[in-house]
Amino acid sequence: MTQNHDEHEATPPWDAASVNLTSKEMAPGVFAVMPDDVFAKDHVATTGGFVIGERSVLVVEAMLNGDLASQLIGLVRQQTSKPIRFLVNTSYHGDHAYGNYVFPESTVVIHHPATKRYLDENFEDDRRFTLGLMGKGNGIERVQSRSADITVSDFISVDLGGRTVEIRHFGFAQTPGDLVIWTPDAKVLWVGNMIQAPSPALPWLLEGRHRDTIETLTKVRDFLPEDATIIPGHGRPMRPADIDFPIRYLRELDTAVSAAIAAGESVEATLEAAGMSHYGEYSLFDWAHNTVNVPAAYEAIRQIPK
Q1: Is the pTM of the predicted complex or chain greater than 0.70?
Q2: What residues does 52 pair with on adjacent strands?
Q3: What local confidence, expressed as pLDDT, does residue 2 receive?
Q4: CA atoms of 106 and 5, how far apart (whole Å)
Q5: Which pLDDT tens digit goes with each residue over 173-213?
Q6: In what order do the strands lie in the sheet with 188-192?
Q7: What is the CATH T-level fold of the domain 16-240, as seen in this structure?
Q8: Could you tell me which residues come within 8 angstroms of residue 250 by beta carbon, excluding any fewer than 6 positions away?
Q9: How many helices (H) and strands (E) in the chain?
Q10: Contact 260, 20 (CB under 8 A)
Q11: Is the pLDDT of residue 5 over 70?
Q12: What DSSP string runs through 142-158?
């Protein structure tokens, strides 16, 4: 949750105080961590997970606050007493990284360099914004800054003992520092907010660059075997074929907005021309499409040299 994140919503996207996290074993020793309403809604609180090796554990995401981070750690402890050696934040958004401070000092926090830079330079401003968005009494007042111990700009592999986990950067999708976490033996991939949730959920172009997002999502889809499992940033598990839905939406958005700009339309007129109401089943459609995505695509395409 950043100053770019959800700033047009009048109410919090979810109630942090009521989130109950659960774990689901996707393969032996590989767990998705999800809110307990993940199969009932098309957008929920942050998802994450953990991978258990013979010697240690890697955790994906730290959640919005210390209470949710503690819930996640508790789910790990239900499965193993092995040390949490690594913690990966897929982006700088507060609901993925604010809980870092609760993890043991010995845990190695991993970011993309752009994520670390943002958190190091903007943490207090970001926290104030998130407090305004999510409201008081949600643990954000107690959050402390903790950014990366090491950064990954392309690829690293970590050994948990008998199990290797890969941390990769495929490119820009929602932020410059989007990381994915891949367990090759279990074929499970965490993608953070580069994919919010399966259909009908739409991408959120909070920092624009929709053509870069198309390229990155295509790379991710092509990288994965067909039987892989994807854990998105705020939704239920999905398959690689499900990535075709956000790619198709973004391509249609690009076509519709490009045509409106070619016809000399203003951004206000483009909102009507690029209505794309056939995607309207998404519960956050009006905000995501009309308030965020169409203006972002309009600005990006308008700036492309003729």
Answers
A1: yes
A2: 57
A3: 41
A4: 31
A5: 999 999 999 999 999 999 999 999 999 999 999 999 999 99
A6: 155-159, 164-168, 180-183, 188-192, 229-232
A7: Metallo-beta-lactamase; Chain A (3.60.15)
A8: 203, 210, 213, 214, 217
A9: 8, 12
A10: no
A11: no
A12: G------SEE-SSEEEE
